[in-house]
Amino acid sequence: MELRGRLALLAVTVAAAPLALGACTSDRKEAGPAGRATPELAVTPAEGTRDVPISGEIGTVVKHGRVTAVRITDDKGATVDAEPREDGSGWVPSKTLQPKRTYTAEVTATGDSGKTVTRKTTFTTQPKSSKQAITSTMYFAGNRTYGTAMPVTVAFDPPIPKEARTDVQRRLFVKTDPPQPGTWSWVGDGSQVYYRAPDFWRPGTTINVRAALEGLPIGKERVGDADRRATSKIGRQVELEIDNASKQMSVIQDGKLLKKLPVSLGKPSTPTSSGKMVIMEKHDFTTFDTTGSADPYVVDVEDAQRLTWGGEFIHGAPWSEGDQGYTNVSHGCTNLSAANADWLMGITQVGDLVTVKGTEVKLDEGNGWTAWNVSWDEFAKGSALPVPPGLKPTPTQAPDPGAVAGGSPEPAPSASGG
Description:
Elements: E1 25-26, E2 40-44, E3 58-63, E4 65-74, E5 82-84, E6 90-93, E7 102-111, E8 116-124, E9 132-138, E10 145-146, E11 152-157, H1 162-170, E12 172-177, E13 183-186, E14 192-196, E15 206-212, E16 217-218, E17 222-224, E18 227-234, E19 238-243, E20 248-253, E21 256-262, E22 273-278, E23 281-289, E24 298-306, E25 313-316, E26 334-336, H2 338-345, E27 353-357, E28 361-362, H3 376-380
Pathway: Cell wall biogenesis; peptidoglycan biosynthesis
GO molecular function: acyltransferase activity; peptidoglycan L,D-transpeptidase activity
Region (Disordered): 74-96, 383-418
């Protein structure tokens, strides 16, 4: 039985022009001392623009200077908080604008000469949209502690068509502290988009995510459904390496082998996938129900950790303990003894990397959070926006021994396994 959660999230940390409608409100160039020209400033939406989407933002283009002040107010005089884009090309309201409201933006730019230019524009947002919203899900919750391989994932139903991905990606924002820039990459059918850096997150990193999609026009017939935010931290470095040849799982923490555990993987008719995947959920107790499949069964399991949407888990399987370390007998899952599965639950975090090698089939793109199953160069090709040329892999740094592990998984419906 396949679990299909779908979500939507939007963010961008690469240079991007803001969404804006209409022509620019701009200044006239004024003469200044040689080499110290008066700044030129253009602002969008243009003065008097109507039917601006509620996802609208203030676009700015500056020559011979930089934006030094932005003040946005609504038609009742209340201040609207906004955040600048990293490249300075626009200011994005911290909350989605309200429908059928009038807003005024006053932008000031300061030139090298010290002279300033201020431009004001007033615009009106469109009525509440009657278009159907694309359902989005963000697989990054707030106030959690995740593993170092945790990709920020947004899922969409229906998938985002190629021609709309640039606009969606412009509205996905990720900030990390300490800074560790990355990029977004789309799964081929547009059902998911992942964000990661060239290398694993450093333990102790704080990640702030915003998917500002509410009211965003997506194609001609749909709009984004919600504006979501989440802030969480990265815990200790843990990874699992599972080798079909030896039928052993190596549990590695902070670069050191903690323990090797015997496993039983998928039998030839239902093989386990080989590839790099990420722990998606953790359940002390769940039920696998494959009613309606070619090999139906219903079984209760303990200490289950999801790896794929297709139903591959690591879990306790006392019924196969005699086969673990010797023979593959599962329906695609990684079987552990009850004691080993319980011990492992205390070590792992959602977002930890799991590498399986030597099985009969390869992991399919998008079957789980497959952001690490390709090289960085291949991953970056999936971005709908240009990736900065300087964004290259860096040497892996030693984990912070003081980082805190833990975290709670997202609740999820019962799923298949074996």
